[in-house]
Design a protein that fits this description.
Blueprint: E1 5-6, E2 15-20, E3 23-32, E4 35-38, H1 41-44, E5 52-55, E6 68-70, E7 72-76, E8 90-94, E9 121-126, E10 141-148, H2 150-153, E11 167-170, E12 185-188, E13 191-196, E14 210-214, H3 219-226
Antiparallel strand pairs: 1-10, 2-3, 2-5, 3-4, 4-8, 5-6, 7-8, 9-10, 9-12, 10-11, 11-14, 12-13, 13-14
The structure holds ~{N}-[3-[3-(aminomethyl)phenyl]phenyl]-3-methyl-butanamide.
The site of ~{N}-[3-[3-(aminomethyl)phenyl]phenyl]-3-methyl-butanamide has 14 residues, from loops.
Length: 227
């Protein structure tokens, strides 16, 4: 997260950290007791290694009462396109139901397939790098970002018609999601509307707005997997 600040501990109890050998790789969030949502391209960043899901954390390293590392029973993604940002969603089934408490809670996602109005202030959180020099935070960071219309985001100077109706854009001027924040939720009025994708892999540059997968465009798929 660029341009953000440390969150108040455990005020985002839905946040997950996808980890390989104790190293944070991607964000994610709890959508049901046994299911975490993240980004499909995070699996590529893991080279098919076995990964775990950390819930209940604020600090990645310190002991915290409700931190718990969960094994993964299986994963599912809607598409097969790896190189693009298309269908960049991942559903992770935990090996057991998460123990819900004040530090571990489910986050509702948007089910109505309508664009978030441009200008809406949303929030993204994660343990991704906090500077382009690659500084890794130990504690969860968050930043507030305004939504940018698809029409503006598709201009040549920005993402030049790459933004489909299954994606949305948020401002990236100084404040932005970045490496390691992929898979985390973009939350607007308390509801998850988007999932962080890496997009152009540029951070904090106003010319390359952040790209987020629109969750409401995948409700049918999500319900089919959770059923
Ligand atoms: C100088 C370094 C920061 C270059 C680099 O490694 N960028 C990188 C790599 C992979 C993903 C991402 C990435 C993820 C999530 C969101 C975004 C952009 N909002 C970028 C950004």
């Amino acid at each position: 997260i660029l341009g953000g600040r440390e969150t108040t501990p455990h005020l985002k109890p839905y946040m997950a950290s996808l980890q390989v050998h104790g190293k944070h790789i991607c964000g994610g969030f709890l959508i049901a007791e046994q299911w975490v949502m993240s980004a499909a391209h995070c699996l590529e960043d893991m080279d098919n290694a076995t990964f775990h899901v950390l819930l209940g954390a604020h600090s990645l390293k310190e002991h915290e009462p409700h931190k718990h590392l969960y094994g993964v029973l299986g994963t599912s993604s809607p598409g097969s396109s790896h190189d693009t940002n298309h269908d960049d969603l991942l559903l992770i089934q935990l090996e057991e139901r998460a123990h819900l408490n004040q530090d571990v809670q489910v986050l509702a996602f948007q089910r109505v397939d309508q664009d978030v109005p441009a200008g809406t202030k949303c929030e993204v959180a994660g343990w991704g790098i906090t500077s382009n020099t690659g500084r890794h935070p130990d504690k969860l960071q968050a930043v507030e970002l305004p939504i940018i219309s698809r029409e503006v985001c598709n201009r040549r100077i920005h993402h030049d018609n790459e933004i489909t109706e299954k994606m949305l854009c948020a401002d990236s001027r100084k404040k932005d999601s970045c490496k390691g924040d992929s898979g985390g939720p973009l939350v607007c009025h308390g509801v998850a509307e988007g999932v962080v994708t890496s997009g152009s892999r540029v951070c904090g540059n106003w010319k390359k707005p952040g790209i987020y997968t629109r969750i409401s465009a995948y409700v049918g798929w999500i319900d089919s997997i959770l059923a």
